[in-house]
Amino acid sequence: MPFEFRLPDIGEGVAEGEVVKWFVKEGDTIAEDAPLVSVLTDKANVEIPSPRAGTIRTLHAKEGEKVKVGGLLVTIDTKDGDAPAAQARPPEATEASAAPTASPAPTPPARPTGGRVLASPHVRRLASEKGIDLGQITGTGPQGRITEADLTAATKVPEAAEASAPADGAPAATEADAAGSDPSNPPPISTGEETAVAGAPAKSPASTPDAPHGRPPDPEIERVPIRGLRRVIAEHMTEATHRAAHFTYVEEVDATELVRTRDRMAMHLEEKGVKLSYLPLILKAIVAGLREHPRMNATMDDEANELLVHHRFNMGIATATPDGLLVPVVRDVDRKSVAELAREIQQLSERARAGKLARAELTGSSFTITSLGALGGVLATPILNYPEVAILGVHRIVRRPIYREDGTLAPAHLMNLSVSLDHRVLDGIEGAQFLAVVKRHLEDPHLLFAYLV
């Protein structure tokens, strides 16, 4: 029997996901709980297992295509009796097609006595606000979980039954007719990328990805689709540069004592399997700077036109991965030791590069640090991790001669720090003062342990 599997509710507030990779193709056999598809939401890849065993009949979404929660993903041919013929009607269906006749909508099946309603806190809150009894809704998510799309469908079906019921003897309008008659919902335009139908003519070269807009393909140019994590990064960077007014301030730091302190601590931590970079010490110095300048530890609420100053020190660590830049979050930096920070950063970085981070590990930061380590260069102007209002760039440590205060020439380890600010809410002087505090603690690392930072 054919089983239609729809994109489940994979996180609060997630309305859609992008198909990153199919682990099967049409005609493949698959076991229950075997990897089916990888879906990207908010920069986190979620691997979804197959809900049924059977044969893949149809993949309804291509790699790189976005699918709304409740949207059809795949049809699986299962053995008789293994599954119902199909899941409930997709919640994104139009009102006209949701009730093609004037007959009353069937009463949803009641939950078994003592049964538990499966729904996220976000869905429960929405249901309470709309006065919806979750016990009267059949969920389309995994194991019958009720999704936000199910709530939407439940509120739209009664309206659709009244608005779209045809006159006596008149044929019911089709979904395409309904879409074409509404100026706000025009019929879909063919992009030439739809799944081929048996007997349909083959695509012309002008409709292939190498020849968009009817132009002939150029053998000297490779067209690379911007999709998956790369597309999410592009969208976030565009939003950051369009919304925030960037300003960057740079300071040089004498890191000679920082290098010595780190080298001595690293010997002890490596015995316990922890690799110590400079980042944990820099994070501690940032905490000291944020304590003195709390408006730097903030996010911007543009809708309310308010600056949200955070009292917890949750810091994003920009991490390069094979697919692009991710920003895992280290929480409560001020409450953790240098060793704990080193271990956590190491674990987060490894999971980020392996694509194993959970969505919760990529959200909730109020300040971000970006560093390329040995390839840190001389200077950069980091783009804000919007809606945060500040980001610190850490650059390469180099050994150069400098003049000391007594006039002598001596070798030193020097590095540059660059802080980018949202100049709409932070003045340059505030960024300079913040960086002065960070510099003071890095040039004299004993300060990092003299106070609770």
Structural write-up:
With 453 residues, this protein is of the alpha+beta class. The protein folds into 2 domains: 2-181, Beta Barrel (OB fold (Dihydrolipoamide Acetyltransferase, E2P)); 230-450, 2-Layer Sandwich (Chloramphenicol Acetyltransferase). Helices cover 26% and strands 22% of the residues. It contains 10 helices and 19 strands. The chain has helices at 95-98, 121-130, 148-163, 175-181, 229-243, 256-270, 279-292, 338-353, 428-443, 447-450, and strands at residues 2-6, 16-22, 29-30, 35-41, 44-49, 54-59, 66-68, 72-77, 246-254, 298-301, 306-309, 315-317, 319-321, 324-326, 329-330, 367-371, 390-394, 398-403, 409-422. The strands form 5 sheets. Strands 9, 12, 15, 16, 17, 18 and 19 form a 7-stranded mixed beta sheet that branches. Strands 1-8-6-3 form a 4-stranded antiparallel beta sheet, with no helix packed on it. Strands 5-4-2-7 form a 4-stranded antiparallel beta sheet, with no helix packed on it. Helix 7 (279-292) packs across helix 8 and helix 7 crosses helix 9 (428-443). The longest helix is centred in the middle third of the chain and has 16 residues, at 148-163. The protein is elongated.
